[in-house]
Amino acid sequence: MNKSKLQRLQQLVGAPVEVRVIPRTEWEQAGGSKHPETGDCLERADSSWLLAKADGSEFKVIDIRAKLTPLERELLGWALKPVNAKPQAGASDSERQARKLGDWIEQCIAAGDVRAEVPNQFELRNRLFDGMIPFLLQNEQADDREPSYAELEKVFRSFISDDMFLVPLREREWLVLGSDRLLAEVDSPEEDAPEQDETKEVLYSLATGLHQMFTEEWGGECHVAVGMPIIPTESLVQTVSTLRETVYLGRRFHIGMQVHLPWMVHLERLLSGIPESTRARFMEEMMGRPDLFTEPETITTLDAFFAMDCNVSETAKKLFIHRNTLLYRLDKLKQETGLDVRSFNDAVLVRIMLLLYKVTKRK
């Protein structure tokens, strides 16, 4: 708020007015909501605070040294509400509520409150039922046009179902919630697989289909993460945070992959938290040949070997090579590094080295 507007506001309320930046903790200690919205008013002993902006751990407030009447609070709060340019004219109530929910999720993540539950004040709680499958979709468009909410909702409904729910998050990032009934509608490639493994296979198939549908419709680089069914009212913020981290880890450690699964990046999550200096020292100690992972054939072979759970026969099939050819490559790797990936301990070390190399790109 510029100086002239502050002066005008001071004249209207007949009291001193100033803009202050306070910690989120000070707002909460004064009795303010843990997840406030722009325009919210907090009455204090001798003043009124109007929230102008919530930015992570800091709040920008308009400090009015006077008590406001209910009408003044309502009018000033309305004036401070941001004008959301994203919803087009004639946006549905569902879209407005979805964007409001998306803003609330972002506030919770910024504040580190990932375990927050959806407040009862949201009118769309009746659309958040138990057992919803969360998909997080991020897109980097080839052009500057972002698909409208109505366009996305129409296409997603045709792919998922009419009871899906779309929540816009950051720019070109959306949360898509579908019923867990989808799990029964997709045939699993292994009917006798354990229930959890079968569920993960189906979720991967659904995410792959969603990715293909989006890229065919709008193009650009698209990444999709999917999680196990959730109870949205209880774990929506935690789910978005986890799926967002999953996409980040997938893009960082597995370049070229567009569909990412939280249960497939446990090791990557651990390695990502290790200080850079520790990672570099480990690579220096382990690398007998600095140029080992610069050879495309070696990387391709190891990626396939680990993807096939270190099964020699299945890896050879995946690479379309003879089993003896694969054994020759693995023996060569053992001679050059002293590590035999057919041994569990050595396989773990090589797996870690390969992942770290993809991050550090050591030459």
UniProtKB/TrEMBL annotation:
The residues covered by the PucR C-terminal helix-turn-helix domain are 300-355
| Classification via InterPro entries | CdaR-like_regulators, Homeodomain-like_sf, PucR_C-HTH_dom, PucR_C-HTH_sf
A Pfam cross-reference name? HTH_30
Q: Which PANTHER family match?
A: CARBOHYDRATE DIACID REGULATOR
Q: What is this protein called?
A: Helix-turn-helix domain-containing protein
UniProt organism field: Cohnella zeiphila
